[in-house]
Specification:
Radius of gyration: 13 Å
Strand order of the largest sheet: 5-6-7-8
Strand content: 35-45%
CATH architecture: 3-layer Sandwich
Number of domains: 1
CATH topology: Rieske Iron-sulfur Protein
Helix content: under 10%
CATH superfamily: Rieske [2Fe-2S] iron-sulphur domain
Number of helices: 0
Order of helices and strands: EEEEEEEEEE
Pfam families: Rieske (PF00355)
Keywords: 2Fe-2S, Iron, Iron-sulfur, Metal-binding
Protein name: Rieske (2Fe-2S) protein
Shape: globular
Bound molecules: FE2/S2 (inorganic) cluster
Length: 109
């Protein structure tokens, strides 16, 4: 199994990006660390299915630390990926289970 990303590359302030195969399909993931724990979601906005980043691996963040979709500005809470403002308010990003070990982040079994 291949690690997604080095654990040290996933910080509390900036969103990170990784490519993976999830359920047999290629996937783009967005990751962040919240209270020490790495969280990961598919890099797909629930509004119109667009990528969240404005360039590969480059994510917008507002003053509250929300992830902001580059397409139409939906804002997602870092703790749980819930959309708190914008055209898909109340919907959530699709979470991907990950685990951190040996200095790397891996897809969870
Ligand atoms: S696709 Fe993200 S807000 Fe429209």
């Amino acid at each position: 199994m291949t690690p997604l990303i080095e654990a040290a590359a996933v910080g509390e302030d900036a969103y990170s990006h990784a490519e993976a195969t999830v359920a047999g399909e290629p996937a783009s993931l967005v990751l962040i660390r919240v209270e020490g724990q790495v969280r990961a979601w598919h890099n797909v906005c629930p509004h119109a299915g667009r990528r969240l980043d404005w360039a590969p691996g480059r994510f917008l963040v507002d003053k509250a630390g929300h992830l902001v979709c580059a397409a139409h500005g939906a804002s997602f809470r870092r703790a749980d990926g819930l959309c708190v403002a914008g055209p898909c308010k109340g919907q959530s990003l699709v979470a991907v289970a990950v685990e951190e070990r040996d200095g790397q982040v891996w897809l969870a079994d």
